[in-house]
Each structure stands twice: as structure tokens, then as C-alpha cells.
Write a structure and sequence with these properties.
The protein has 17 helices and no strands.
């Protein structure tokens, strides 16, 4: 009989994992699959918290969590997908056994779009460090098709997943450059940022592949978001440095250089102008124009994009938000 003074039933599996009792934890997970909807959700939420604190404790039972992605209840599937995102961000190897299940959720046109988005995000984290584990062409096709979804947050997650794929193995997307560039004018700045970053990652290994999308990249040099402008300039620099672009957009880059004050952009504009032999500006950091440098700077760039800008508006739909507004926009439902 369970100790009434012990942890709540929904926390007992997390407690067992903290104690290293993995076998018993797996047995309880199997039993939870037939418990009430609320208990299934609460258990998964508890494990998600643990995954954020001690991912190494949850990773070994990743395979036992996979069935929850196929639960009859949509809310349980969503909670499970969020758990796999937390796990994949910290220990992508632990999520490899769930790749096929996550891919099935992504491909299911009848699935709740947030479940599809979170599944894509988890797959992206796996692709970042284990590109061989996410090598099914159908997964990439589903990610690209998803860029046309109506929901901004879904497009964000799919664009982020494509960025991760490109950073993990740029060769996987080298034939999809034009498809990615078609969405560089997306109304969501995070979508534009992630796709521009994916193009930079591809350009680091295959700069010649950027030639057909040069005009789309030039068009982003006046993007309202500084980090998108910076990545566009970085991609143009890679193309120019490859020596295949005789008509590099020098004038557009020079105009940006004359007015740009944001360091993230200015460094990348200098990189592009240096590539064309037209800049005598200060030295460019070694990280600019390298895949390793992109990986190092992306998290900070996303933090800057998603941080409140102080104008009291939802960055997704522009709704004016009152002080003390809830963490989700009341109009579009996106996190703020």
C-alpha cells in the first residue's frame, strides 16, 4: 500500500527516477497508461519538470514514454510531446527511440496543430546532434509543407526544426534552398529568423547553393528585425566569398553599413563587404560565417527576438496588452 505521507501518485514516478529505481518507474508508467486522463497528464507534467532539472534521470525511460504520443486524448499527446521537447533539448540521444512516433504525429493531418508543432521541435533537437536519426525524407517534406500552416507558433516550430536540421547536417537541405527562401517574407519574425539561419548553415558548407536565392536575401537586408538582417548579410557574405557571385549586392550592403548600429548586423555586413573586397572596416569576429558560430549565437538571438520590447503589444498579432497581462495573448493565444 502506498505511503499516504509520500509524494502524490502523479509524482511517484519522478521520485523513483530521482532515486534511480528505473525498473519500478517503467512498471508504474505502464500502469499510468490506463489511469485517468488527468493522472496521465499530471504524471507527464511531473516528468517534464524533472527532465528540465535532471534530464539524465528521465532519459533512460524514453522508450516507455513513447506510447503516450499515441494516447486517445489530445491533451495527453500534447503534454507528452512537450516532455519530449524538454528531453530532446538536453539529451537528444534519449529521444531517438521516439523519432518514428514523433514523425507520425507530425505527418498526421488530423492531429492537433500544437502537437504537430511540438513533435517537429523535438525532432529538430534530435537532428541537431544526431542527424542520422532523423534521415527520413518524408520528415523533411512534412516540415517544409508545414511552413504554410496558418498558425504562427506552428510555423515557428517547424522553421526552428529546419534550422536544426541544417545545423546538424547542411547537406540534408542543400537541395531545398529555394523552398526555404520562399518563406523568408513570413509575417512572423521568428520564422524569418530561423529560415535565414538555416540558409546560413547551408551556405557555410555549400555557398554556391545560395546563388538562386540571392534576391530574396537582399530583400531581407531591410527586415524590421535586426537578427534577420544580420543573417541575410551573413548568407550574402558566404555567397560572395565563394567567388561565384559576380554581381554581389555591394550597394545594398553599403547602404546598410552606413546606417546600421546594431552590432549583430554590423559585424555581418562587414563580413559580407570584406568578402567582396570593398570594406576597410574593423575586423570581423571569427565566428561569423561559420556553422559553429551560428550555433553559438542562435540561442541569444532568439532570446532577443522573443524578449518583450516594451511597447505593450503581442509580437504575433499586434494586440495592445494591458499591464499584468496573462502569459498568452487573449486574441491569438500565442505566448508573450
Amino acid at each position: 500500500m502506498d505511503d499516504p505521507a509520500g509524494p502524490p501518485p502523479t509524482d511517484r514516478i519522478a521520485t523513483l527516477l530521482r532515486e534511480g529505481a528505473r525498473g519500478e518507474a517503467v512498471e508504474r508508467l505502464d500502469a499510468v497508461r490506463t489511469a485517468s486522463t488527468e493522472e496521465r497528464r499530471a504524471t507527464l507534467r511531473s516528468l517534464r519538470t524533472l527532465a528540465g532539472e535532471r534530464p539524465g534521470a528521465v532519459g533512460p525511460v524514453g522508450s516507455a514514454l513513447t506510447p503516450f504520443l499515441e494516447d486517445d486524448e489530445r491533451s495527453v499527446r500534447l503534454t507528452a510531446a512537450k516532455l519530449f521537447v524538454a528531453l530532446a533539448a538536453a539529451t537528444p540521444e534519449a529521444v531517438v527511440p521516439a523519432v518514428s512516433s514523433l514523425a507520425a504525429r507530425l505527418a498526421d493531418e488530423d492531429e492537433f496543430y500544437y502537437v504537430r508543432a511540438r513533435s517537429a521541435e523535438a525532432l529538430g533537437y534530435v537532428a541537431l546532434d544526431r542527424p542520422d536519426a532523423v534521415d527520413d525524407p518524408d520528415i523533411l517534406a512534412d516540415l517544409r509543407v508545414g511552413l504554410s500552416f496558418d498558425e504562427p507558433e506552428v510555423r515557428e516550430k517547424l522553421a526552428k526544426a529546419l534550422e536544426c536540421v541544417a545545423l546538424g547536417d547542411p547537406g540534408r537541405l542543400r537541395h531545398q534552398v529555394s523552398s526555404l527562401a520562399e518563406h523568408l517574407d513570413d509575417g512572423n519574425e521568428l520564422v524569418r529568423y530561423h529560415l535565414a539561419t538555416a540558409l546560413v548553415a547551408i551556405g557555410c558548407a555549400y555557398p554556391e547553393r545560395l546563388a538562386p536565392v540571392r534576391d530574396a536575401l537582399v530583400g531581407r537586408l531591410d527586415d524590421e528585425n535586426a537578427h534577420v538582417r544580420g543573417r541575410a548579410a551573413e548568407a550574402l557574405g558566404l555567397l560572395a566569398r565563394d567567388g561565384r557571385d559576380d554581381d554581389a549586392p555591394r550597394d545594398a550592403l553599403a547602404q546598410v553599413a552606413d546606417v546600421e548600429e546594431e552590432p549583430f548586423v554590423a559585424e555581418r555586413v562587414r563580413f559580407a563587404l570584406d568578402s567582396t573586397g570593398r570594406s576597410e572596416a574593423a575586423a570581423v569576429p571569427d565566428a561569423v560565417g561559420s556553422r559553429g558560430g551560428v550555433r553559438e549565437t542562435t540561442a541569444a538571438a532568439v532570446d532577443a527576438i522573443t524578449s518583450p520590447d516594451g511597447d505593450g503589444e503581442c509580437r504575433h498579432c499586434g494586440l495592445a496588452l494591458p499591464e499584468g497581462a496573462p502569459p498568452m495573448c487573449p486574441r491569438c493565444g500565442a505566448p508573450i
